[in-house]
């Protein structure tokens, strides 16, 4: 099939930059570990309150400057909904839901994940700056969807 | 060539029936959209206890599914009748059957949404559970569209039989590709509705596998956008060259790009599920790579369009690097509306690259940025192209002509649309980057300082949305005029001819076994293992919830 010379040049550079781009994305994902939240852990959505760590939701220290933040989402609230994190902490956020699908977005950060019944989702972030972040539900879950929120304060260590 | 110049009166009626429903959906869905932007500005509340999410569901279903599917099927019936000859009585009857099944399905779905029994949005994410009537209605819409698809396949087969060894007319070929794409992808949504959602909403089964239902939905949900886009591409490739007085740059490249869209638009649904649990990130990355393959036919299309424009301008004596731009028929709404749509596709495509990027998706996922994105792709590029097509298609089918006044109004309409969308989609993109969520009523999240930052953008959205609603009123005036009041006369259904310099089209493009085979193979590669994983490692299923 005949192709115009200019079209060949156009497609050569277009497809070339496409593959360069996909390589960069791939290296970032697999060599540097920048994968989207894709936790494979399952849980019985009707027994969340009895299943550790979600039977005692909240911030748990797991190591030197390392923490786990376990959060339960349900219509239309997060438990807990007032969270204090010491500055510099590396926090693994685990979230699950007791009922329908929810979103978990920490505004102004890269923490943004789907929370689906039967699954735990997880993302790790280091909080290097003090400040206040709003957590909100960004996946439609019912009438009170836009009222579903929580607050995170990153504070200086005492 | 056994092309007919004019669509047969009986086929025209079938096409027009679809177009009427499409524009009624535009009127109602547009009104719902206006209410949404007003609520979201924080300055307005819905009267009489109307639920914001009922309006949102109405908007999505009417504009995302009804307007698009009805217009596309109507346009394609006209296109195959125009290029492959008048439909047989059998094909036409099947088309009418499809039309009525779709219309009854739409009415049923709309009924259950409006009485508040189905405020689950058009993505109907389980375990939110709608009334069974909602799922039955949507099933009828899909089944009706299949009947019309079969009518088009039969018509194409009849043409091939009558013209052995010949290349089929380009518009007919493209319509067939689009209906194959639609058939293959809508199997996914049919599966989740018929096997999972419907039995569950009727109470036959208690629980449902959430991740499987979402995966089946997105197996359908992304090709759906190409089902919207390909008819716009048909108009760009075949109709626009004729309108400006030029030629189709290359018949074979047009066919190649359609085949590439067929192959690469389906095994890609995971890019809507990038931040979801339960799917291994390596499989997500594979589908990201496949998603990006549609960049290739998109680049080919962009090249073809501008090559056609430049060749035409130069044939009229244009000089200099961009002199040909001045030779284009800017005063002709049939050209101007789709052209503005094309321009909007440049930022729209760039935004799409961001959304589908493995990691970058996390920044914008479920923010109103995404809403801004598809209001550029669907609600500007595709919709303005459809409007531009309506300006010749409707008078052609109703035996009327578009007056100069209406043409001028259509130019104004296009400008109004572009300005409204710049405001609305532009502020949606910015607010989304600041974290404002999509699919949400107005909220300050407990006076969060971060949420208060979004309010100026939300007011700009309301201004843009109001301008767009004026655009909808204008297009409805034009369409009503063209359908019922414009002076009687003959309007051309423009079908471009291929440039003399283009080479003969190889027949391999119509080797359907090959292309469908590759399509199915890629789907199996992309989905089999993760799908088995989902079922084998499934958590306990979910009961239904009605939380609105």
Present the secondary structure layout.
The complex is a heterodimer of chains A (158) and B (548).
Chain A: H1 5-30, E1 58-63, E2 66-74, E3 77-79, E4 82-86, E5 90-97, E6 102-106, E7 112-115, E8 121-126, E9 131-136, E10 149-155
Parallel strand pairs in A: 2-5, 4-10
Antiparallel strand pairs in A: 1-2, 2-3, 5-8, 6-7, 6-9, 9-10
Chain B: H1 9-40, H2 52-84, H3 89-114, H4 132-162, H5 170-201, H6 210-244, H7 251-264, H8 281-292, H9 295-315, H10 333-356, H11 361-364, H12 368-398, H13 404-433, H14 449-452, H15 455-485, H16 512-536
Helix pairs in contact in B: 1-2, 1-3, 1-12, 1-15, 2-3, 2-4, 2-5, 2-12, 3-4, 4-5, 5-6, 5-7, 6-9, 6-12, 7-9, 7-16, 10-12, 10-13, 12-13, 12-15, 13-15
Please tell me about this protein's structure.
Chain A has 158 residues and is of the alpha+beta class. Chain A has 1 helix and 10 strands, in the order αββββββββββ. In chain A, strands 1, 2, 3, 5 and 8 form a 5-stranded mixed sheet that branches. A 5-stranded mixed sheet of chain A has the order 4-10-9-6-7, with no helix packed on it. In chain A, a hairpin with a 2-residue loop joins strand 2 (66-74) and strand 3. Chain A is elongated and about 65 Å long. The model of chain A has no long low-confidence stretch (mean pLDDT 95). Chain B has a single domain (9-536), classed as Cytochrome C Oxidase, Chain A (Up-down Bundle). Chain B contains 16 helices and no strands. In chain B, helix 1 (9-40) packs antiparallel against helix 15, helix 2 runs parallel beside helix 4 and helix 6 (210-244) packs parallel to helix 9. The longest helix of chain B has 35 residues, at 210-244. Chain B starts with 8 loop residues before the first helix and ends in a 12-residue tail after the last helix. Classes of the chains: A alpha+beta (158), B mainly alpha (548). Chains A and B meet through helix 1, strand 7 and strand 9 of A and helix 6, helix 7, helix 8, helix 9 and helix 11 of B. Chain A: It is found in: Cell envelope. Chain A: This is Cytochrome aa3 subunit 2.
């Amino acid at each position: 099939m005949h192709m115009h010379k200019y079209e060949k040049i156009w497609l050569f550079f277009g497809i070339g930059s496409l593959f360069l781009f996909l390589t960069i994305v791939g290296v970032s994902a697999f060599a540097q570990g920048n994968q989207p939240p894709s936790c494979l852990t399952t849980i019985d959505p009707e027994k969340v309150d009895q299943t550790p760590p979600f039977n005692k939701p909240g911030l748990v220290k797991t190591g030197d400057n390392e923490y786990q933040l376990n959060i339960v989402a349900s219509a239309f609230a997060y438990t807990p909904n007032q969270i204090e994190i010491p500055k510099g902490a590396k926090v693994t956020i685990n979230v699950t839901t007791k009922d329908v699908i929810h979103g978990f977005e920490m505004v102004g950060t890269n923490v943004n994940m789907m929370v689906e019944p039967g699954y735990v989702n997880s993302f790790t972030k280091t909080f290097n700056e003090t400040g206040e972040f709003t957590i909100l539900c960004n996946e439609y879950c019912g009438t009170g969807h836009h009222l579903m929120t929580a607050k995170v304060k990153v504070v200086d260590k005492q | 060539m056994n092309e007919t110049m004019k669509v047969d009166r009986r086929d025209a009626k079938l096409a027009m029936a679809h177009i009427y429903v499409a524009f009624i959906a535009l009127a109602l869905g547009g009104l719902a959209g206006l209410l949404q932007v007003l609520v979201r500005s924080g300055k307005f509340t819905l009267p009489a206890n109307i639920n914001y999410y009922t309006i949102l569901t109405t908007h999505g279903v009417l504009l995302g599914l009804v307007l698009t599917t009805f217009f596309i099927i109507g346009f394609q019936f006209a296109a195959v009748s125009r290029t492959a000859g008048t439909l047989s009585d059998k094909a036409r009857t099947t088309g009418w059957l499809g039309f009525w099944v779709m219309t009854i399905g739409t009415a049923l779905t709309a009924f259950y949404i409006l009485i508040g029994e189905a405020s689950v949005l058009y993505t109907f994410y389980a375990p939110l559970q709608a009334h069974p009537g909602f799922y039955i209605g949507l099933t009828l819409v899909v089944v009706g569209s299949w009947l019309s698809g079969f009518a088009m396949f039969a018509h194409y087969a009849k043409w091939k039989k009558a013209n052995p060894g010949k290349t089929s007319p380009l518009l007919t070929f493209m319509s067939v590709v689009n209906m194959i794409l639609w058939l293959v992808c809508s199997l996914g949504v049919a599966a989740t509705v018929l096997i999972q959602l419907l039995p569950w909403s009727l109470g036959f089964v208690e629980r449902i596998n959430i991740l499987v239902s979402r995966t089946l939905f997105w197996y359908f949900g992304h090709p759906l956008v190409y089902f919207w886009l390909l008819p716009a591409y048909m108009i760009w490739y075949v109709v626009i060259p004729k309108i400006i007085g030029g030629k189709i740059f290359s018949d074979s490249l047009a066919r190649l790009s359609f085949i590439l869209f067929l192959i690469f638009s389906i095994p890609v649904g995971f890019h809507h599920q990038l931040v979801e649990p339960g799917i291994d990130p390596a499989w997500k990355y594979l589908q990201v790579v496949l998603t990006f393959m549609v960049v290739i036919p998109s680049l080919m299309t962009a090249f073809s369009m501008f090559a056609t424009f430049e060749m035409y301008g130069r044939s009229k004596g244009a000089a200099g690097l961009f002199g040909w731009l001045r030779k284009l028929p800017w005063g002709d709404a049939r050209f101007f509306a789709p052209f503005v749509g094309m321009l909007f596709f440049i930022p729209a495509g760039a935004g799409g690259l961001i959304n589908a990027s493995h990691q970058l998706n996390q920044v914008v996922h479920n923010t109103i940025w995404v809403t801004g994105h598809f209001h550029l792709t669907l609600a500007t590029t595709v919709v303005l192209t459809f409007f531009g097509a309506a300006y010749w298609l409707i008078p052609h089918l109703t035996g009327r002509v578009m007056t100069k006044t209406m043409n001028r109004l259509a130019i104004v309409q296009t400008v109004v649309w572009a300005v409204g969308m710049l405001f609305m989609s532009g502020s949606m993109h910015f607010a989304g980057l600041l974290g404002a969520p999509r699919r949400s009523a107005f909220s300050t999240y407990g006076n969060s300082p971060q949420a208060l930052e979004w309010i100026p953008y939300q007011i700009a959205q309301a201004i843009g949305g109001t301008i767009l609603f004026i655009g909808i009123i204008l297009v409805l005036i034009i369409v009503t005029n063209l359908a019922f009041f414009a002076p009687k006369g003959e309007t051309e259904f423009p079908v471009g001819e291929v440039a003399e310099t283009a080479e003969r089209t190889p027949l391999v493009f119509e080797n359907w076994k090959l292309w469908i085979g590759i399509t199915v193979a890629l789907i199996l590669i992309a989905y089999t293992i993760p799908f088995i994983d989902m079922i084998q490692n499934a958590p306990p299923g979910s009961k239904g919830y009605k939380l609105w």
